[in-house]
Amino acid sequence: MVFTDVELEYLRTQRLGRLATLDPRATLQNSPVGFQVDENAGVIEIWGRDMGNTRKFHNVEANGQVAFVVDDLASVTPWVVRGIEIRGSAEALRDQTPPNAYMSREVIRVHPRRVIAWGIGPDGARVARTVTPE
Known about the structure:
The protein has helices spanning 5-12, 55-63; strands at 16-22, 28-34, 36-38, 43-46, 65-76, 79-93, 107-118, 127-130.
């Protein structure tokens, strides 16, 4: 299992994340994105209305290096930040069946290699681990 039950529970409550990609000139791009988790495959899927024409999609096609962060403020008094950072590789896939008709047929699929979580779970501790591909 790529994600723990606590991580999946947190990810199910969130709608937006930020995807960092690297373009062919080694310039970083960070994009706000909607996402979903394919729990069976242990991947993050990022769809969009015109995904195949986006810079992030072309960056992933070029090198596949990504970092993805989902975080939020659980409270401001007291200050409680929580989130998950996923580092790994990604693939830019074409001609896929989107989850709804509004989205195009391209998807970025993020394959976690390192997962860092903080502020979630019963004790809210920072937990980092390497994920072994199956």
